[in-house]
Every structure is written in structure tokens, then in C-alpha cells.
Specification:
The protein is mainly α. It has one domain: Helix Hairpins (Orthogonal Bundle). Helices cover 85% and strands 0% of the residues.
Length: 135
């Protein structure tokens, strides 16, 4: 019985992934909700006050920029793992601030896509992407 449950789960997961691949805006919504819930449930965000969130974001951006500064100085690119770590920290604080202000990631992304497309009305590739994200 357990094996059948696993097969059913894997088939359902495969079907869901096919649907998400076909509808990128839905995939974005699922990823957004999952990560935002994770950030909100993490112990750190629960005790983080507003000023800590606001100061944490630029501090983490500074740590990311420090990697690039060292890369420039020493002529070697930053280690991928270090970049992933710092981008993750920046994104964590970004989501924390965004949620504190009452925004959803999808709202910000949609706004930015429309802003960029409006600035580039002759770029057919961007306009096609905007239409795809409305799907």
C-alpha cells in the first residue's frame, strides 16, 4: 500500500510541475507563498522589530558588495557558495521588509515587469513575456 501511495504522490507532483511549467505566473505564486511563509515562520523574523529589518537589509547588501570588492581587488571571482549565501541573506531581509509593509512578492514583480515593458514598448520579447506572465 505504501508503494502505491508513493507512486500516486510522484505522479501528482509530476502533473503539478507540468502545470507550473506551463503557467509561469502560477509557479511564481507558489514559490512566493512558500518562501514568504518560511520567512514569516522563522524564529528570527518573529522577534525582529521594524528597525532591525530596515537596517538588516542594507547590512546584508553591504556584505554582498564586500565579496565583489574583494574580487575586484584580488582579481578572482567570489566563490559561488559565498554569493548564494549572501544573496540568500539579502533576499531574506527583502522579504521580511516587504511583508512588514504589507506587500506580496507577486505584486512587486508584476509592477516592475509592467514598468520595464512600458519603458520599452518596441521590445517585442519583453511584451511577449508580460503577456506570458498574465497567463
Amino acid at each position: 500500500m505504501e508503494r502505491n501511495d508513493n507512486l500516486a504522490y510522484l505522479r501528482a507532483k509530476e502533473k503539478i510541475n507540468e502545470i507550473l511549467d506551463e503557467y509561469p505566473s502560477l509557479k511564481l505564486d507558489v514559490m512566493n507563498r512558500s518562501y514568504c511563509e518560511f520567512v514569516l515562520k522563522s524564529r528570527k523574523i518573529a522577534v525582529m522589530n521594524e528597525m532591525e529589518a530596515k537596517l538588516g537589509f542594507p547590512a546584508e547588501v553591504g556584505e554582498l558588495m564586500s565579496l565583489y570588492q574583494k574580487a575586484y581587488r584580488y582579481g578572482e571571482p567570489p566563490a559561488r557558495e559565498d554569493l548564494i549565501s549572501e544573496f540568500g541573506d539579502v533576499f531574506y531581509y527583502f522579504v521580511a521588509l516587504m511583508k512588514r509593509e504589507g506587500f506580496h512578492l507577486r505584486e512587486i514583480i508584476d509592477y516592475n515587469i509592467n514598468k520595464i515593458c512600458d519603458r520599452n514598448p518596441d521590445n517585442e520579447e519583453l511584451q511577449a513575456y508580460r503577456n506570458l506572465m498574465k497567463k
